[in-house]
Amino acid sequence: SQQGEEDPQALSIQEGENATMNCSYKTSINNLQWYRQNSGRGLVHLILIRSNEREKHSGRLRVTLDTSKKSSSLLITASRAADTASYFCATDFSNDYKLSFGAGTTVTVRA
Amino acid sequence: DTEVTQTPKHLVMGMTNKKSLKCEQHMGHRAMYWYKQKAKKPPELMFVYSYEKLSINESVPSRFSPECPNSSLLNLHLHALQPEDSALYLCASSGSLAGSYNEQFFGPGTRLTVL
């Protein structure tokens, strides 16, 4: 079942600008992950933030987690054309192997 | 080797055909997954294998039959599919001997078209 909601649904930015997308979820989680999917391809894991963490960085990516608001954000700084993709948040909340994916944000970076 | 491979890349089949999708990983992962993804939608979990045993079946119709011959291989056998089964089928794996099961590694997918 889909636990996460993402916004915006779509985002178009100029190369070099920052892109921010948000994910909200409904129940307590063990961790929250972000994945990227280029058109028609498999998903690539970007970053995992545990429920006891508030912020995490990986290269040009910054993820925040606010468990009191049940929300997370993904910031991509200094965007490049290669960042054009769909981005999904996924929550691990059930202590089994399931991930619940959000609906995704489609990011287009214009040259 | 940090790759999950899937074959074939594309598959077109009729509703009376029998075909199989294959997935392979050599990362020592103990959990393997099949997902179905429709256009502009998130992946939907179909099956999970843990230590070569089926641990989760998300009420998938019996025309989809998973198989895990060994810890590196995962198959999805297809029979009597419907046109609405056309989708991108993704395989994933997670959980090395020393790690957790959280982060999933995805293959590139098989684009299935049912005529």
User: What is the percentage of strand-forming residues of chain A?
Assistant: over 45%
How far the N terminus sits from the C terminus of chain B, by CA atoms, comes to 36 Å
DSSP helical segment count of chain B: 0
Unreliable spans of chain A are none
Which stretches of chain B are low in confidence, meaning pLDDT under 50 for 5 or more residues running? none
Kindly state the number of beta strands of chain B.
11
Write the H/E string of chain A, N to C: EEEEEEEEEEE
> How would you sum up the global shape of chain B?
globular
Shape summary of chain A: globular
Oligomer: heterodimer
Percent range for β-strand residues of chain B: over 45%
Helix fraction of chain B, binned, reads under 10%
Measured by residues with Cβ under 8 Å of the partner chain's Cβ, the largest interface is:
A-B, 23 and 27 residues
Based on secondary structure, the structural category of chain A is: mainly beta
Average predicted local confidence, pLDDT of chain B: 92
Main pleated sheet of chain A = 6 strands, mixed
Task: Estimate percent helicity of chain A.
Answer: under 10%
Task: Offer a few descriptive terms.
heterodimer; A: 111 residues; mainly beta; 6-stranded mixed β-sheet; 5-stranded antiparallel β-sheet; 55% strand; globular; B: 115 residues; 7-stranded mixed β-sheet; 4-stranded antiparallel β-sheet; 56% strand
Write the layout of secondary structure elements.
The complex is a heterodimer of chains A (111) and B (115).
Chain A: E1 5-7, E2 10-14, E3 19-24, E4 31-37, E5 43-50, E6 55-58, E7 61-66, E8 71-76, E9 85-92, E10 100-101, E11 105-110
Chain B: E1 4-7, E2 10-13, E3 18-25, E4 31-37, E5 44-50, E6 53-57, E7 64-70, E8 73-79, E9 87-94, E10 105-106, E11 110-114
Parallel strand pairs in B: 2-11
Antiparallel strand pairs in B: 1-3, 3-8, 4-5, 4-9, 5-6, 7-8, 9-10, 9-11
